[in-house]
Amino acid sequence: MVTVAEVWFWPQREGEGLAAAAASLAHTMGARTVAVVFGPQQQVQWAADEVLYWPYIGLESGTAIAAGLAHLVKERRPSALLLPASPLGSEVGARVAAHIGASFVGPCLRLDHSGKGRILALRPAFGCRASCWLEVWGEGPVVVTLSLESLRSRRLSGSPGRVTEIRDEVLPVAPRGRMVGIYALKPEDMDVGEADVVVAGGRGMGGKDGFQLLWELASYLGGTVGATRPAVDAGWAPKERQIGSSGRIISPKLYLACGISGASQHLVGMRGAQEVIAINTDPGAPIFSLATLGLLGDARQVLQAVLERLSLMARPQGSSPPFLPPSTWPGKVMVCLSAGPDPESLVGYEKGEGVPFVLGPADASALALALKVKGTDKYLWAVAVGGEEMEGPLRLALALGAQGALLVGTPAGEMDVLATAYLLAQTAQELRPDLVLCGDRSLQGGTGAVGWQLAHILSWPCVAHVVDASLSDGALWTIAWAEGGRRVLIESSLPAVLMAREGAVSLPYPSVRKQIKARAQPIIRKVPSGPGHGSRGLKVSSLGPPKPMRLGFYQVEESPWPWQRVAALLGGGRPSSGLVTGDPETLAIHLLEFLTSRGLLAPPKK
C-alpha cells in the first residue's frame, strides 16, 4: 500500500521535460516521482525516485500502452499521471482516464497544487488569446497531457532511483483496425500544417526559380514547402501554403526559413516549430533570434550548393495519396458536434459573458466527412452535449443534410471530458449507428479525448486523424494522417468511431433557403439523469490574459525582459551573435551536417 503521494510520468516524448514537470508538481505536494517505462531493451535513464519497468508489454498500439498504464495506476493509485500531448500521448492519456474513471486535462502549460489538496492545470483558452486555471475536484488520480512546447525548455538533472521490474502478463486490448498500407506523400501532396519538415521561402528567394530550389530540397527531407505572405502575393507559392497570422499556424519539427526576415505576422505562424534554421543576408534579421542554426548568406546560392551535394544521393520517392472506393453500404451515421467560444472574439471573456459560440475546425471536418460518407442512402444524426449554445451547430447540420438532430442536456454540476463521452455512448447505444464521427481536437483546448474514450466505452475500433473514409461492402475504409505528413490506409470492422482531422475536409456553406428550412425542423432534447461515471469534474478557477510572450513564442516560465516584449510586438529581435559566415559551399556543409545530425539525411559514406 502506497503511503506517500506519487506523481507518475510516461516519457514517450520529451522525457526530460516530463521528468522536470513531475518533479515540480511533486515538490508542491510533498510527493515522490515515478517513471513508467514499457518495452524490451529500453534505457531506464529518467530522473525519478522510482522507475517502473515493464519489459513484456507490446508497444505496437496506444490501446496496449493504455491498458498497461491503467493496470498499474489501479494498483498504486498515484495522485497524477503526466504524459506528452503528442498524438500517441493524447490517445494513451484519454484511454487511461476512461479505463480508471479519472479526469483528463490537456494540453496544459503548467501544473500546480492548491492548498485544498487539488491539482491545478494551466491551459490556453480562446485560441491562445487567453489562459485559464482548471481545478480538478474529486478523488483519485488525474491524467494530464502537457504541451510539447512547454516541455522542450525544461531539464532535470539526476539519475534514476530504484528500478522495479513488472512481471505481469500482457493484457488484452480493445479491437483496432488493420493497416493496409502506409504512404509517404510527395511534397506537393503534403499539407503544410502536417509536415515534420517545412522548407519556407520569402522575398529573398527572388522568384519562382528560387522556390523550385525549396521544392527540390523538401523532396530530399521528406517535407513540404511554405511561404511568407509577400511570396504568396507575388505568385511564387499558392495561398494554402502561406504561413503567418493571415495564413496557417504550424508546428513542424524543423522549420528552414530561406530568405525570410521574420516579420511579427510570420513569426506567429511558425511559433510552434521545435527547431529553426535561418538563411539570410541581413545579420539583424529578427528570424535569427529564433534560429537554432543561423547562416549568414544568400539563400539561393546556399541551396544550390546543398542540392549539388545531394544530387549524388538517391532522392526518396514519394507516393500519391491512396484511393478509396465510393460509399455503397447503407446504414446510419452519427456525428458528435461541439462548440466553443469564438477565438476571434474577446468580448466579455473575463466574465464568460457575451462571447459567441462557434463550431470548431475539427468538428467542421467531422460534419463534412459525415455528409460525404452518408451520401444519399444513409441516415445522419447530428448529436451535441451541452446547452442552448449548441443549437446553432445542430441547425447548421440540418441545413447541410442531416435528417435528425439531438441535444443532450448536461446534468447539474461541472462536466469533464469523460462524462461527455459517457453521455455520447448512451446516445450511440440508443441510436445504434454503424459509424460515429467526431473531431480530433476541441476548440476549448482538448486533444480529441472524447473520441478515444467513446470508443473505449463502446468497445469499438477507433481511427484517429481521419482525412477520408468510405463504407463499402460492409467494411470501413479510412485514410488517416500520420506524423511526418504520411497517409495510412486502414480497414476496420463496423461499428466504429472515427476522429476527423482538423482541416481535412472543407465544410460547404448552406443556402439561405436551406437555413430557413432548418430553423423549422425540430431538435430533439434529452435530459440525462446523471453523467454516467464517478463524481469527477473540472472547475475554472480563474481566466485571464495569455502568459507573457518571448520573441513571438508563448512563455510559461519567467516573464521576458522589456526589450523582448517590445521586440515581439514590433517583429524585431536582439542583435544576433554566433551566426555562421562564409562562402556558399561552407554554409552548405554546415547545413548538411545539421540535417544529418537530426536524422533527416543519411551520413555521407567514407
What structural keywords apply?
606 residues, alpha/beta, seven-stranded parallel beta sheet, 27% helix, 27% strand
The percent range for strand residues is 25-35%
Alpha-beta content class = alpha/beta
Estimate the mean pLDDT confidence.
Answer: 81
Termini separation comes to 58 Å
Count up the helices.
Answer: 15
CA-atom Rg in angstroms: 25 Å
Largest sheet: 10 strands, mixed
Task: Determine the fraction of residues in helical runs and give it as a percent range.
Answer: 25-40%
Q: What is the approximate shape? A: globular
- Which strand order do you get reading across the main beta sheet? 11-25-24-23-26-22-17-20-21-27
How would you sum up this structure, described in words?
This protein has 606 residues and is α/β, with parallel strands linked by helices. The chain has 15 helices and 30 strands. The chain has a ten-stranded mixed β-sheet, with helices on both faces. Strand 24 and strand 25 form a beta hairpin. Helix 2 packs across helix 3, helix 10 crosses helix 13 and helix 11 (417-431) packs across helix 12. The protein is globular and about 70 Å long. Residues 548-577 have low confidence and may be disordered.
Helices and strands in order, then pairings?
Layout: E1 6-9, H1 15-29, E2 32-38, E3 48-54, H2 62-76, E4 80-84, H3 87-100, E5 103-108, E6 110-113, E7 119-125, E8 130-137, E9 142-146, H4 148-151, E10 160-165, E11 178-184, E12 197-201, H5 208-221, E13 224-227, H6 229-233, E14 254-258, H7 264-269, E15 275-280, E16 293-296, H8 299-310, E17 332-337, E18 339-341, E19 357-359, H9 361-374, E20 379-385, H10 391-400, E21 404-408, H11 417-431, E22 435-439, H12 449-458, E23 462-472, E24 475-482, E25 486-492, E26 496-500, H13 512-520, E27 524-526, E28 537-544, E29 549-550, E30 553-554, H14 562-570, H15 584-597
Parallel strand pairs: 1-2, 1-4, 2-3, 3-10, 4-9, 5-9, 12-13, 12-14, 14-15, 15-16, 17-20, 17-22, 20-21, 21-27, 22-26, 23-26
Antiparallel strand pairs: 6-7, 7-8, 8-28, 11-25, 18-19, 23-24, 24-25, 29-30
Helix pairs in contact: 2-3, 3-12, 5-8, 8-15, 10-13, 11-12
